[in-house]
Design goal:
The chain is built from twelve helices and 15 strands. By secondary structure, it is α/β, with parallel strands linked by helices.
Length: 456
């Protein structure tokens, strides 16, 4: 499969009836009767899906949408990609489920994954299978605490590492803890070097240093109030926090300090990994070597699975049953993941993501020159965020504006979702295989939707 091959349903975008059409409305009504009202995505995209292929979704009423959503970076090769589909079908005929006992799919996946890992983990890692991204982060934190014999884990403002179990304490939005059994005890949050909204008047050049100095103070000063630091958990590019790319020196300095004090560095590549930034792993851009790394989302090709990779010496006294789960390492998901990783290694897709990502970001920046309400455009590869504000001068978050732009794009046939501290960042997370024509049509609709939302 060539990187530029036509994979999507033809004819998008095409809105035949204003969504939700009658067939979609019928399914939405039944869903409303049966399923929890705590859903959020159906509040953003009011439709019911008939089928999807490549980077196009067709709803029950025949409307065609350009997908800049990818199931929140779960479908990095798009819907029904032949590489992934073939691997899944072949594996279904062999084995669908087994606990821990090795299969060809399991072993091949681990061998291929190990060959792609960053830094010293490459060709020298141990793996722990988990089910969700949050499950992977929880296991990684437990592993760091086991290795260091210390409980406090340093995390960062804007972080999202999951909302179930203990890991909810690492996720920055405190509302997720409103009904949690566990508190945020055991996690200490420092500011992330978010250059557009850093909490102190620090220059961009000094921002990463300011954060890392605060980390070192927390580690070495017994009166810092933090306690023994047992690990540092960080996203190389923040996802739900707003597609925030830190200064290039941040992760290397973080690595330097954690090595100095023998503290495990955990890198969360759940959203930023699997080719999203133009490298298989985002941490490759700055050349760091994690001690522990969390992977999920697209690594299962759409089937829930996640993995923790870690240093082999961390495995030496790990007790049996350290982290359990019935559905860890599903063979169909691992067959899909191995095929995706092999495709990255054998094709020119990642180079295309880097080149096209630069072009797309430049186009977003050009559009931003027309609107005082686009505060910043940032990102790497196909992980691009545009932060909306009420005005560039005040930088007041444009939460309502982002909602209007998103709704306008949906009504015109493009799915684009929000994120950020104030839900005011529109994020481009289309499949890495999206055709150029669908990108360009989507950009036209983004610009028109901005125009309508700003100027009415």
């Amino acid at each position: 499969m060539d990187a530029a091959e036509q994979l999507s349903l033809p004819g998008a975008p095409n809105i035949r009836v204003p969504p939700p059409g009658p067939k979609s409305a019928e399914l939405l009504k039944t869903q409303e009767r049966l399923e929890t009202q705590s859903r959020t995505i159906t509040q953003q995209f009011s439709m019911a899906i008939k089928r999807a292929k490549g980077s196009v979704i067709e709803d029950m009423d025949g409307n065609l949408y350009i997908d800049w959503f990818s199931g929140i970076c779960v479908l990095n090769l798009g819907h029904a990609n032949p590489v992934v589909k073939r691997a899944m079908i072949e594996q279904i005929d062999k084995l669908v489920h087994m606990n821990e006992v090795p299969s060809e799919a399991r072993v091949r996946f681990m061998e291929t994954l190990e060959s792609t890992l960053p830094g010293s983990l490459k060709n020298s890692a141990k793996f722990m299978f988990t089910v969700t991204g949050g499950d992977a982060c929880e296991a990684a934190v437990a592993l760091a605490r086991h290795v260091s014999k210390k409980r406090t884990i340093v995390v960062f403002g804007g972080a999202y590492h999951g909302v179930a179990g203990d890991i909810v304490g690492a996720t920055a939005n405190y509302h997720y803890r409103d009904y949690a059994t566990l508190s945020s005890a055991g996690f200490h949050h420092l500011p992330y070097p978010y250059t557009y909204r850093f909490p102190t008047k620090t220059s961009k050049e000094e921002m990463a240093r300011a954060v890392v100095d605060q980390l070192e103070y927390s580690i070495r000063d017994p009166y810092s109030g933090v306690g023994g630091v047992g690990g540092v958990l960080v996203e190389p590019i923040q996802g739900e926090g707003g597609y925030i790319v830190p200064p290039d020196d941040f992760l290397p300095m973080l690595r330097e300090v954690t090595e100095k004090y023998s503290i495990p560095l955990i890198v969360d590549e759940i959203q930023s990994g699997m080719g999203r930034t133009g490298r298989i792993w985002a941490s490759e851009h700055v050349g760091i070597s994690p001690d522990i790394m969390c992977m999920s989302k697209s690594i299962g090709g759409g089937i829930p699975t996640s993995v923790v990779a870690y240093r082999k010496d961390f495995d030496e006294d790990l007790p049996a049953g350290f982290h359990l789960g019935t559905f860890r390492g599903n063979p169909v998901a691992l067959a899909a993941g191995e095929a995706i990783l092999r495709h990255f290694k054998e094709s020119s897709l990642l180079e295309r993501v880097r080149v096209q990502g630069d072009r797309i970001k430049t186009r977003f920046q050009e559009i931003s020159l027309r609107f005082d309400q686009i505060g910043e455009v940032r990102g790497r590869g196909f992980m691009i965020g545009t932060e909306l504000v009420n005005s560039r001068e005040t930088r007041e978050p444009g939460t309502e504006l982002a909602r209007k732009v998103k709704e306008g794009m949906f009504s015109r046939g493009v799915l684009m979702h929000t994120c950020g501290h104030f839900s005011n960042v529109l994020r481009f997370m289309a499949p890495l295989t999206i055709e150029d024509s669908l990108v360009d049509k989507g950009l036209e609709i983004y610009e028109a939707s901005m125009e309508k939302a700003v100027r009415g």
